[in-house]
Amino acid sequence: MFSCQGYGLTEGGPISAMVDPDESCRLGSVGRLAGITEAKIVDHVSGEALSIGQEGELWVRGPGVYVGDDESNALSFTSDGWLKTGDLCYFDGEGFLYIVDRLKELIKVQRISELEHLIACLQGVVEVAVVPFPHEEDGEIPTAFIVREARNNLSEIEVMDYVAKQVAPYKKIRKVFFVSSIPKSPSGKVLRRELMKQKTSGFASRL
């Protein structure tokens, strides 16, 4: 008897499994693809396929994958039937699948701090706060709120390109808003919910 790992989804059924004791020795892997399921690792922003060993979102397709017909479920599928699992994964050179994290869990405190530190190094940035902002298709996207120096012309594209060159695809800044100030509590803590309210209420100006 041996213990093994596997991976599956409600919409996709069994995706991968280990089938013998030798495979079960691969710590961290959930096995090879099961049956005739197709899978690929993609940049979840661009949809571009990534290479072996690169981390990205796992997309799967096959006869066992259920394509829903309601609006919310449809957002999880591409027009050609790929299911966007929302899991950050990679394949090794022998076809074994490894689950790294959930994409929506990646924009957490440590990653927010990393992005804020990068942007703060840009010339012309006085203050910055990064917020995991709700997004219809991707759940949450990293959004930067920036206070610029007076008469500085730093642009949204410059910020996004600068960050994209230094972080993994799933960490890229997807939106930038330039604001006059970053709301804080009396203790100096950034009030991220207030920033989100400003954005949805139209107080933040996108330049």
From TrEMBL:
<dbReference type="GO" id="GO:0016878">
    <property type="term" value="F:acid-thiol ligase activity"/>
</dbReference>
<comment type="similarity">
    <text>Belongs to the ATP-dependent AMP-binding enzyme family.</text>
</comment>
<feature type="domain" description="AMP-dependent synthetase/ligase">
    <location>
        <begin position="5"/>
        <end position="66"/>
    </location>
</feature>
<dbReference type="InterPro" id="IPR025110">
    <property type="entry name" value="AMP-bd_C"/>
</dbReference>
<dbReference type="Pfam" id="PF00501">
    <property type="entry name" value="AMP-binding"/>
</dbReference>
<dbReference type="InterPro" id="IPR042099">
    <property type="entry name" value="ANL_N_sf"/>
</dbReference>
<dbReference type="InterPro" id="IPR000873">
    <property type="entry name" value="AMP-dep_synth/lig_dom"/>
</dbReference>
<keyword id="KW-0067">ATP-binding</keyword>
<dbReference type="GO" id="GO:0005524">
    <property type="term" value="F:ATP binding"/>
</dbReference>
<keyword id="KW-0547">Nucleotide-binding</keyword>
<dbReference type="GO" id="GO:0016405">
    <property type="term" value="F:CoA-ligase activity"/>
</dbReference>
<dbReference type="InterPro" id="IPR045851">
    <property type="entry name" value="AMP-bd_C_sf"/>
</dbReference>
<feature type="domain" description="AMP-binding enzyme C-terminal">
    <location>
        <begin position="114"/>
        <end position="189"/>
    </location>
</feature>
<keyword id="KW-0436">Ligase</keyword>
<protein>
    <recommendedName>
        <fullName>4-coumarate--CoA ligase-like 7</fullName>
    </recommendedName>
</protein>
<dbReference type="Pfam" id="PF13193">
    <property type="entry name" value="AMP-binding_C"/>
</dbReference>
